[in-house]
């Protein structure tokens, strides 16, 4: 529904090229997100897998697509690979942009969980401003990459969200390498894949929850591609004892925040 509404906005605004807009580019470790905003409204967005090694020329092609029939006043870059974009008018830190984006979608948010490809972040917010944060980037466990690696090992034959169980396989290691070895061992013992997946979700939650509790958060936004995983959301909510706030498109939170930062400052 959100995408359809945005597309209708885009068609309308294409006729008015005099309207000045902001385009943000959030270069993550696995995907690149583009968001077009004007007067605090999302006009259009795209999520692209441009590969692990981002070529500026590929990003520029996408930017040129957005520019057709539009008057883009400023381009702002954020995310893991933000410094790779030499043509950006502005570069903003990912953590600050996430806070702004969380506040855009949920005004009462006082915290955010972002599980990215390379790291996990928990932010403490006040009116969209980041007042404290914890970054977990020393080990891949608890990241999107870790989840992808586990899926590869399991060799799943259906969508990840279709696997669920009331039983959790025990994955005790907090290290990604050892956790992967545990998963292989569980498979050799004929433990059902559903139970192993639930164990993986439990392991990820066990890394995130202490970070959240340390921050003493109540209204928590969950962002990033992993926030589309409904079963993981359920496991994480069970651990937290709270209902998470999920945007309709959780992958664009950082890019939206970057646009807002560009609109706020000259």
UniProtKB/TrEMBL annotation:
It comes from the Archaea. The keyword Metal-binding applies. GO terms for molecular function: hydrolase activity; iron-sulfur cluster binding; metal ion binding. Keywords: Hydrolase, Iron, Iron-sulfur, Metal-binding. InterPro entries: ATPase_BadF, ATPase_NBD, CoA_E_activase_dom, Dehydratase_Activator_Redct. The keyword Metal-binding applies. Residues 25-262 form the ATPase BadF/BadG/BcrA/BcrD type domain. Its EC number is 3.-.-.-. Its cofactor is [4Fe-4S] cluster. NCBIfam families: CoA_E_activ. This is R-phenyllactate dehydratase activator. It comes from Methanococcus maripaludis.
